[in-house]
Design a protein that fits this description.
Order of helices and strands: HHHHH
Distance between the termini: 34 Å
Number of strands: 0
Strand content: under 5%
Low-confidence stretches: none
Mean pLDDT: 88
Structural class: mainly alpha
Number of helices: 5
Largest sheet: none
Shape: flat
Length: 87
């Protein structure tokens, strides 16, 4: 499918949405995706975090590197099983 057809399909799908939260989420995603790249020297989100937040993120990365985390596919598998059971 060419890009024009993809855009038309997306527009049609968005026009069908009635969930306001989903529309707001899509709007936020589009706003994020269309932001201009930051200029050199402009603040990065990391610079806006507190030292405690930075330490927690760094600890989380270290734990994942050491194999202490749960792989994404395992989490998704468990979530899918719970979702299926709830139906």
């Amino acid at each position: 499918m060419d890009i024009r057809a993809e855009k038309i399909w997306l527009i049609e799908q968005v026009a069908k949405i009635t969930d306001e939260r989903l529309l707001q989420t899509l709007k936020s995603l589009m706003e994020f995706a269309t932001q201009q790249p930051k200029s050199v020297g402009e603040a990065d989100f990391w610079d806006e975090l507190s030292e405690a937040q930075k330490r927690r993120i760094e600890l989380s990365i270290k734990q994942m590197d050491e194999g202490e985390g749960i792989p994404h596919e395992a989490v998704m598998s468990e979530f899918r099983a719970k979702l299926h059971k709830a139906k």
